[in-house]
Structure formats: structure tokens, C-alpha cells
Amino acid sequence: MIKTFDDIQKLSKEGIDAAMESFAAASKGAQTVVAEFADFARKSFEQSTSALEKLIDARTLDRAFEVQAEFARSAYEGFVTQTTKFGEIYADIAKQAYKPLESYLAKVTPTS
């Protein structure tokens, strides 16, 4: 009985350790997301400001439409690129957060 209790206690400690490693990986991933979002927001603001300056300097209506079209294309491409990057970051976070739990779950999952 003592050996069984010791085994349960050891598995519980391993489970807590795995959970803590998983939370640490998720926390680190969240920091990455926040930093990436802040960088994207800064770049977006700079692009918007630049486009507004070009729009103000436009002498003709045709040039104003060109500036607006360039900005829209650039903003869309940047958004698609950033969305793809965020998708990759989130997938990596999920992998890193699951990795510590994977070996623990293999130990506690009954085999048939």
C-alpha cells in the first residue's frame, strides 16, 4: 500500500510540474503575442500617418485616389501577413504548452 501511495504522490508531483511548465510556456507565448501586436500597431500607425501626409500633399484628385489605393493595398497585405504570423505564433504556443503535458499523460493514461 505504501508503494502505491508513493507512486500516486510521485505522479501527482509530476502532474503539477508538467502543468507549471505548460503554464510557463503559455505565459511566454502570451508575452510574444503582446510584443508582436504592439509592433504591428506601431507599424500600422506609422503607415497610416505616412499615407495621410501623402494624401494631404496630393495636388490632384487622381493622385489622392492613387495614394488611397496604395495605402489600402499595403494595409491589406500587412494585415494578411500579420494574421498568418499570429496563426503560426499561436500554433507554436499550443505545441510548447502541450509538450510538458504529453509525457505526463502518457504515464497516467491506461493502456489496453
Quick structural overview:
This protein is mostly helical and 112 residues long. It has helices spanning 2-57, 61-108. Helices cover 93% and strands 0% of the residues.
Could you explain the architecture of this structure?
The protein is an all-alpha fold. It has one domain. 93% of the residues lie in helices and 0% in strands. It is rod-shaped and about 85 Å long. The mean pLDDT is 90.
**β-strand number:** 0
Which series of helices and strands comes N to C? HH
Structural domain tally: 1
State the distance separating the first and last CA atoms.
Answer: 24 Å
Please summarize the sheet with the most strands: none
Strand content: under 5%
Question: What is the gyration radius calculated from CA atoms?
Answer: 25 Å
Low-confidence stretches: none
Share in helix:
over 70%
> Tally the helices: what do you get?
2
Helix and strand composition category: mainly alpha
What's the rounded overall pLDDT mean? 90
Shape: rod-shaped
Keywords:
112 residues, mainly alpha
List the helices and strands and how they pair.
Layout: H1 2-57, H2 61-108
Helix pairs in contact: 1-2
